[in-house]
Write a structure and sequence with these properties.
Order of helices and strands: HHHHHHEEHEEHEEHEEEEEEEEEEEEE
Distance between the termini: 66 Å
Low-confidence stretches: 145-152, 184-202
Helix content: 25-40%
Number of strands: 19
Shape: globular
Bound molecules: the ligand Nc1nc2c(c(=O)[nH]1)N[C@H]1C(S)=C(S)[C@@H](COP(=O)(O)O)O[C@H]1N2, molybdenum atom
């Protein structure tokens, strides 16, 4: 136990050094370096569940969990040193094991192939070993001057107290630094008194154009890239007449396009709100490709991003004048978390087909599959027709005098033709009124005033018809792998 506590205390110093390296020099921490592989090892449905239910908690939790995991391993190191008093050898073995084994297995290469990582881990393990050595030394002294009370608990010795104070302080420091690394954890979108929960937007429609700060965020990264404009370039290569290397200014100088468009994550479950709408400004992807001159035998594009994300797109989609590379969201510079400085704005597809932090476009005949496709997600990722009841909130008690029921519907590039509401669980359907939508590929708001025939409990169900006349399927499917299908249902209690 004593060895473990000493190791734990030394481990908290390790964390401080590691997190300081992250903040001061931008050196990625060990949890960040291994998390990518952990996410990849997570089966698609589980990751989808985490996204859906723990989106704004999941990643900070994973990060904190991995930090705590390091502390526990550090404690085990302390137990070893308690038996075998060679703190620097133990620290050194840990260091080598991390760099030569853990990081390569996590797909990062020896010491993540990075001098900063090698140095930061060396310093962190050095701090760890120093603390171990210090307490080793102290507790040997303690043991000799407190010989009459040999069985005094660790906490009663001066070493023990110092150990407690020291680890409390460094844990506190780690918490503060860790929080700085994670950034401000965004609050649940749409949460608040009148809503209460991810799937529960009521009692109103969402804002037609989502305020930028409420725009849903999904990325594979624990810590997203921060791109420096002075070094950022967009490279267009592969099967082109001439490889293009564009600066941010080059992109901004090209003819501008603006569109209002809804993005929805393929992980959005029925009734969920991993979807938002923005006013996007950028350039046509076709214009960029035309500058480079695409060879006639090319058939697809392969996108790469600053975070190692990748995606593919059929050349025909790339040539669609609605397919853009965007640099503004709602008239402002694209925020970091939405892909600054440039991202793809695809048409008719789920969010995953809209790479953020774009750095490269490779024109090709064949290409490796994209990041999420590699995890078993749909490769086309065409938006499924969805509809959602936003108000009244599920479980509401309403009056017999009548109630306004409404929500949103979305079918990507197919658009929405009609939304119907059933108040008998799906046997009969009432037409609803659609609000004019802000664009051809944005969500549509629907509502209908409903007069209940008598008091009681009513199951409400919504279904949409897309622009091609296809009625939304009632077959219930989980988000993985093709996007959720099935009807959103709520229940209302009607009183007199
Ligand atoms: N580079 C990069 N682009 C990415 C991702 C990512 O992890 N890395 N995630 C994708 C997914 S799954 C979605 S749903 C959208 C989310 O875009 P948003 O965060 O701007 O809403 O970005 C997509 N583009
Ligand atoms: Mo997504």
């Amino acid at each position: 136990m004593r060895g473990f506590l000493i190791g734990f205390a030394a481990g908290s110093v390790f964390l401080v050094v590691e997190l300081l390296g992250r903040i001061v020099a931008g050196v990625p921490t060990l949890p960040e370096l291994v998390q990518d592989r952990l996410v990849l090892l997570m089966p698609g449905p589980i990751f989808s569940f985490v996204l859906d239910h723990l989106l704004y908690l999941g990643k900070p939790l994973l990060f904190v969990g991995l930090l705590v995991g390091q502390l526990i391993l550090a404690g085990v190191g302390g137990v070893v040193v308690d038996r075998w008093p060679r703190p620097f050898v133990v620290g050194g073995i840990f260091w080598l094991f991390t760099g030569l084994f853990v990081l390569p297995v996590a797909g990062q290469g020896v010491f993540a192939g990075d001098f900063g990582v090698a140095l930061a881990t060396l310093l962190a393990y050095l701090g760890y070993a120093l603390v171990l050595a210090f307490y080793r030394h102290e507790s040997v002294l303690d043991a000799s001057d407190s010989s009459p009370t040999k069985c005094a608990s660790l906490v009663e010795t001066s070493t023990g107290r110092r150990l407690l104070v020291g680890s409390a302080l460094s844990l506190l420091a780690s918490a503060v630094l860790g929080k700085m690394v994670i950034g401000v954890v965004p609050s649940l979108p749409g949460s608040g008194e009148q809503t209460g929960g991810l799937a529960n937007i009521g009692p109103q429609w969402p804002t037609p154009i989502t305020p930028v700060n409420d725009f849903y965020v999904v990325s594979k990264n624990l810590v997203d890239p921060q791109v420096n404009l002075s070094t950022w370039r967009l490279t267009v290569g592969g099967m082109v007449d001439q490889t293009l290397v564009l600066t941010y200014d080059d992109v901004r100088a090209m003819p501008r396009q603006e569109t209002t468009r809804t993005l929805e994550c393929i992980s959005n479950d029925v009734g969920g709100n991993l979807m938002s709408t923005g006013r996007w400004t950028g350039v046509r992807l076709a214009d960029v490709l035309q500058k480079a001159g695409v060879l006639s035998s090319a058939t697809k594009l392969y996108f790469s991003s600053a975070d190692g994300y990748s995606e593919t797109m059929p050349l025909a989609t790339a040539m669609d004048p609605n397919t853009l590379l965007v640099y503004l969201l709602d008239g402002e510079q694209l925020p970091d978390k939405h892909g600054f400085p440039l991202r793809v704005l695809n048409t008719g597809t789920y969010g995953m087909k809209n790479p953020k932090w774009l750095t490269g476009i490779q024109v090709a005949k064949s290409a490796p599959i994209g990041y999420w496709e590699g995890q078993g997600w749909s490769s086309q990722a065409i938006v499924q027709t969805m509809s959602r009841i936003d108000f009244p909130a599920d479980g509401s008690i309403v009056r017999l005098s009548g109630v306004l029921v409404g929500g949103v519907a979305f079918a990507g590039a197919r658009g929405i033709k009609q939304v119907e509401l059933s108040t008998d669980g799906g046997s009969t359907w009432l037409p609803t009124t659609l609000q004019p939508s802000l664009g051809l590929q944005t969500w549509t708001f629907w509502s209908v005033r409903w007069q209940p025939p008598r008091p009681g409990r009513y199951p409400l169900v919504a279904r949409a018809t897309d622009g091609t006349g296809q009625v939304q399927t009632d077959r219930r499917a989980a988000p993985f792998p093709n996007g959720a299908t099935g009807y959103h249902r709520i229940s209302l209690q009607v009183i007199t």
